[in-house]
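DM from R.C. (forwarded with permission)

"hey, sorry to bug you on a friday — could you get me a structure for this? deadline for the figure draft is monday and I only need the backbone to look sensible"
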Amino acid sequence: MGRSLRVFILIVILVGCGGGIPGALPIGFLNQTQHSDADLWAIWKTAQQSLARQVDLNPLQRSLQGVPADLRPGNPLALGVKPHQLRVAAKPDVASSVLFAATGVYRADPTGLIACPRPCNVRYAAAYSWYTRQVTRYAASWEFQGDNFALIVEYEFENQILEALGYNMRWR
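My reply, with the result:
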């Protein structure tokens, strides 16, 4: 049997067994929230539309250092970016006592914050995203805080989209 025929048969077997093409993850979410997939899609679409209008590259830097905004024209390519098995999940809020011991800042429980792993620019945040692992985490206490949940997750979805488009994420 020729080499190209063996490769073809192997590809057919992999695709038939659900292996698919390596690196090509299905579109959608790994939804580990108390919200529906439809809710997450609505938030994703809002994030896409926001970035198609305007790109803000340094909201964190402005809040920490008071520098001018780095605003760019909207990018219509944002409308075509899709999540590929993006895991969206809550993480337990950091305890008030832990937050106070680490930062000297007091917030009543639930704090609304989670530890933000490196390379975050801050130690604690309401949410964070990992791009290579396709993960967005948020503080569990935000789950049913009305529009706040959508706003926090929308910001993280914007980050996922901007990363996919190749933007510098240092101050996001």
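R.C.: lifesaver. The chain is about 35% helix and 20% strand.
me: no worries. The first strand starts at residue 28 and ends at 32.
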